[in-house]
Design goal:
About 20% of the residues lie in helices and about 35% in strands. It is of the alpha+beta class and about 220 residues long.
Length: about 220
C-alpha cells in the first residue's frame, strides 16, 4: 500500500478511536483575573480557539483549567488570541502545562504540547519570531520571544496539545500563561538557592564576628 494512503488510513483510524462524539471540553479561568475569556471548540477539525484580554488588573500569571479532554494519541490545535491592555509592552510570553494547579507536568502523565501526539502541530506566533520548548522529564514549557506586543495589540499563538492517558490524573489539567516579568521555574529555584546561600553566609559572618569580639584570657 502507498505510504501516503497508509498514513491517511492510520490517521483516520486514530481519529475515530480517540475522539468520542460526545466530547465536551470545558475551559475555565482558575486564577489570574482576566478581563475577558471565551473559546470555541471545533470537534471536526480538532481545533480550539481561545480569546483572552489581559488588562491592568490581570496578574502576571494566568491559570486555565481544562476539563473533559478526549483522551488518545490524537493531538489538537490550540489557537490563542491574547489582547494586551495592560499598559505595558510584552517582550515574551510563556505557556506551561500543569498536572494539577500546583504540580508540573512530567513526561509520563500523558499531557504534552503534542510532541507525543499524532500529527505534530506547528508552534508559532505572529508577533514573536522564536519559540523555546523545554520538554524535560519534569515539565512541558513553551516560551515565545524575539518580538514585542504593544499595549492595545493582539498576539496570536498556535501550538498542539495532547492528553494521551485516561487515568484520571489529568482530568482536569491546567495551562499556565505568563507575561514578561515572571521568572521561570528553574529561575525561581536558582533564586531560592541564592537567597539561602546569602543567608547562610550572613549568619556565618555574624558568628565569626561574635567569636572575634570575645575577650582573651
Amino acid at each position: 500500500m502507498n505510504a501516503n494512503i497508509l498514513g491517511a488510513v492510520t490517521f483516520a483510524a486514530l481519529s475515530s478511536l480517540a475522539l468520542p462524539a460526545n466530547a465536551a471540553i470545558v475551559i475555565t479561568e482558575e486564577a489570574g483575573n482576566l478581563a475577558s475569556l471565551s473559546y470555541n471548540v471545533n470537534v471536526g477539525t480538532k481545533t480550539i480557539d481561545i480569546y483572552e484580554t489581559w488588562d491592568a488588573g490581570t496578574s502576571q500569571n494566568v491559570l486555565l483549567k481544562i476539563e473533559g479532554w478526549p483522551y488518545g494519541l490524537l493531538s489538537w490545535t490550540i489557537n490563542k488570541y491574547v489582547t494586551n491592555e495592560t499598559g505595558a509592552t510584552w517582550a515574551d510570553f510563556s505557556h506551561e502545562l500543569l498536572q494539577s494547579d500546583e504540580a508540573l507536568s512530567p513526561d509520563n502523565d500523558g499531557i504534552s504540547f503534542a510532541q507525543l501526539g499524532v500529527p505534530q502541530r506547528p508552534r508559532a506566533s505572529d508577533k514573536y519570531a522564536s519559540v523555546y520548548a523545554d520538554e524535560l522529564a519534569t515539565r512541558d514549557f513553551l516560551r515565545f520571544f524575539d518580538g514585542t506586543v504593544a499595549n492595545g495589540d493582539t498576539v496570536f499563538f498556535t501550538f498542539g496539545l495532547t492528553n494521551r492517558r485516561d487515568n484520571g490524573d489529568t482530568n482536569p489539567f491546567f495551562l499556565r500563561q505568563a507575561q514578561p516579568g515572571v521568572p521561570e521555574p528553574a529561575t525561581w529555584a536558582m533564586l531560592i538557592s541564592g537567597f539561602g546561600l546569602v543567608g547562610f553566609a550572613m549568619r556565618r559572618r555574624r558568628g565569626v564576628a561574635s567569636v572575634a569580639a570575645q575577650p582573651i584570657g
